Structures are given as structure tokens and as C-alpha cells.
Amino acid sequence: MREQIEALTQNLALTIVGKTEAIRLVLVALLSGGHALLEDVPGVGKTLLAKSLARSLDGKFQRLQCTPDLLPTDITGTNIWNPKTGEFTFLPGPVFANVLLADEINRATPRTQSALLEVMEENQVTIDGVSRSVPQPFFVIATQNPIEYQGTFPLPEAQMDRFMLSLSLGYPSAQEELQMLQNLQQRSNVTELQPCISLAELQQLRQICSQVRVEASLQEYILELVRATRHDEEITLGVSPRGTVALQKATQALAFISGRDYAIPDDVKFLVPYVLCHRLIPRGGRNARTIVDRLLRSLPIP
Q1: Per residue in 212-258, pLDDT tens?
Q2: 169-to-74, 77, 142, 146, 245 alpha-carbon distances in Å
Q3: What's the CA gap between 88 and 25, in Å, rounded?
Q4: What is d(CA 155, CA 108) in angstroms, rounded to the nearest whole number?
Q5: Among 101, 137, 90, 140, which Cα is nearest to 118's?
Q6: Pairwise CA distance, residues 260 & 257, whole Å
Q7: CB atoms within 10 A of CB 226
Q8: Which residue from 26, 4, 283, 14 is spatially nearest to 165, judged by alpha carbons?
Q9: How far apart are CA 22 and CA 170, in angstroms?
Q10: Which stretches of the chain are DSSP H helices?
Q11: Helix spans in 83-173 (H)
């Protein structure tokens, strides 16, 4: 199983230069059964990372380019009348895939964004009173531009809470950008990537990650961190119990990727900013990352 993780990491590194930490975090979300939100300025590789991951998995991939005129049925699918049979036939939407890329998700209207709430939490969609399960495993990787707000709709807290991790790629270093230019000459692009892990193997990896040991003292540390966000004077809305569960699952996946069958406090400390910050509403325009860093320094490590 470790060899499969290494193969997947190397596959992504063929197109995503120098973003080892971002690749690691996306794999954490994938292996822990969550979803990932990539927030960054245009042109740093958010969509490229999502497409590379989808091509590395031997499953069905669908891309959803979010626009203001997108309707909920454009995501979930709809029933259409079939005159030959004299009855309605269900036409599945792009959500019926193993990997769904929701590109520029904040350009969709709140009504359309809400179409993803049920499927991201319960792995099913309800259309005309009938619930339909999506293929398993199911993974949503969404991108959004946090700088340009013209023609965008901020994601509601319920939607943000559905994402296990939120991360940004950042600009590459000079050496990394030079490597990107050299890769262009070598024709290393996403269309040439080959699947390196099957859906059955991914399900097995998820099962193994869920069995990674988390000691009671570490669970209490996770709980103290989460509860501290609910009582801090600089936070309007703290982390929900879903965030507590997400932090433990992400910790287990990170420990497995690191080659361990047990979690340690450093796993939690590394993941806290990515798992908790986007779930907070700071008071008075304060920075969520600064608040979380302060909480990490104030709480004793087990």
C-alpha cells in the first residue's frame, strides 16, 4: 500500500512542480474520505492539480465549470420525458462520478451551490423525491479565486464545512518556475498521465487509514483545540463537531502517508490550520490563521 501512495505522489509531481505539501494535503483529503478546496490566485495550478489527481485514479472523472447561469439540475441531473416509453427517464448529472472537479465554485449562485450539500455529506442526491447514490469512492475537489470577487458568490458556512481541507498553492520559487518551463519542452502534461491506482485499491487504502491508532490523550488534544475556537473572544462562529471528526480522520490519513500506524501530536499541529481555519468566522475582520496559531501555542501538547 505504501508503494501505491508513492506512485500516486510521483504521478502528481510530474505535472505539479515543487508543491509537495499541497499534494500531500490533497492525498490526506482523498484517503480520509473528505473533500478538498483549493483557494488561490489564478494561474498557480489549482485546476491542473485537480485534473492530474483525477487522471491518476482509474475512475470516472467529471469537470463542472461553475458559472452564474448554472442550475442545480446541471449538477445533480434531472428526469426527462421519453415519448417512446411514455415515462420519465433519469438523466444523471456530472455529480455521478468518482472525482468531481468543481472549478471556480464561488461563481455558481447559492441555489446551485446548495445542490452539492447533500452529495458531499451523504454521497447521494435526491431528485423528485427519489434518492440516488453516487459512485464510490466519491471525491470533490473544488477551486476558487479569493481575490477577484466580481461576479462571485461567497460559499456559505454549511458549504465550507463540507470541505475537509482548504489550502492554497502559492507562487512557485524561481527554481520551480524554471522547471515548469523545462517541462514544457519535454511535453510533460496532464493528458499523458496514466492511472496508477484502482478504485478498489483506494477503498482499501481508506479502510486502512481509518484503523490508524489515535490515543485518548491525542483525541482530548483535538477536542480542546476545537472547543477553544467556540469560546474565543476573537471568533464569532467556532468549529462544528463535523470539524472535530474531520481533524481526527485527516490526522489518521497523514500518519499513514508518513509511514506510521499511529498518530502523533505533530500530525494534528500540521493539519489544524488547513482543517479548522475555513470553518471559522473571525470577529471584526481578524485573520483566522493568526487566531488558530495563537490557540496552538496556548494549549499544552500531550
Answers
A1: 999 999 999 999 999 999 988 888 888 999 999 999 999 999 999 98
A2: 29, 32, 13, 13, 25
A3: 42
A4: 9
A5: 140
A6: 7
A7: 24
A8: 26
A9: 10
A10: 2-13, 20-31, 46-56, 73-76, 110-113, 115-122, 157-160, 174-185, 199-209, 216-231, 241-257, 265-276, 288-298
A11: 110-113, 115-122, 157-160
